[in-house]
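Please review the protein record below. Tell me whether the encoded fold seems credible here:
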Amino acid sequence: MWVNMNKAATVIFWLLALASYLMQWPGLLSYLPLAALVVAGIHVLEVMFFWISLKAKSNKPGKDATLIMVFGIFHLQKFMAKAS
C-alpha cells in the first residue's frame, strides 16, 4: 500500500514540476524544475543499476526501465526484494 501511495506522490511531483516549468511560478516553487532534473539524474543512475544488475529478473526490462525512470526506487524495490 505504501509503495502505491509513494508512486502517486511521485506522479504529483512530476506534474507540479512540469506546471512550474510551463507557468514560471515565482518563489520557492520556481525551484521545482531544477529539483525534477536532479531527481531525473538519480533515476538514470537507478535505471543503469537495474540494467546491469537486475535485468535478468524482469519479464519486460524495457517497460520496467521506463517505470523506474518515472517512479525510481519505488518500482525498483520489487526487484531488489527478489534478488536478496
Summary: Residues 2-83 form one domain. The chain has one domain: 2-83.
